Amino acid sequence: MALSNFSHEASSSSDSNHVWKVFLSFRGEDTRGSFTDHLYEALNRRGIRTFRDDEELRRGEEISSELLKAIEGSKVAIIVFSRNYASSRWWLDELVKIMDCSRTNGMLVLPVFYDIDPSDVRNQSGTVAEAFAGHEMRFQSEKTEGWKRALRHAANLSGWDLQTLANGEKKIFKVSS
C-alpha cells in the first residue's frame, strides 16, 4: 500500500474518539534521522495527524501515562521494526499496548520491517533472540512471554518488508498528485 492509498483510508474515518490518526512506534537509534523522519514528514504532508515520541532517552521504569493516552487515542499504529527494536523493554511494552488496542479497540496495526527480516521478529531469532537472552535474565517469564506474543502477532500482520522491495523507501513514500 503506498502512502497515497493509506492517507485516503486514514482520512476517511471521522471517529471523534481518536486524537491522532497514526501512532508511530520505532527505535530512534536505528531509524531516527532516516526512515521514520521521512515517514513522519510524508504523513504530515498528507494531513495525517501523527504522534511521534521525540524522546531520545527513555527515563523511568514504565511507559508514561501521556504515551499510553497517545496510543489509545490513535486510529492506526505503524510499527517500524528494526534490528534493535526488541533490545528495549520500553518499546516492547509499547508494542504490547499497541497490540492490546488492536484487539480491544480495533486499532489498525501496520508493521514495517526496516533492516530486519520479518521471520526474525516472528520467530524471535537473530538480533531479536539476542535481545531476549538478556531480557530473560532480568525479567519474569510472564513479562517476556507477553513481549514474544506481541512480536509474533505483529509480525504476522500484513505490512512492508523493506528488505525485499526495490527502492523500499521510495515505494512507501510514493504520493500521488
From TrEMBL:
Name of this chain's protein: ADP-ribosyl cyclase/cyclic ADP-ribose hydrolase
Signal peptide span: none
GO biological process: signal transduction
Any GO CC annotation of this UniProt entry: nucleus
Listed InterPro entries: TIR_dom, Toll_tir_struct_dom_sf
Pfam families for this protein: TIR (PF01582)
The UniProt record lists the keyword NAD: yes
TIR domain: residues covered: 18-176
UniProt enzyme class: hydrolase
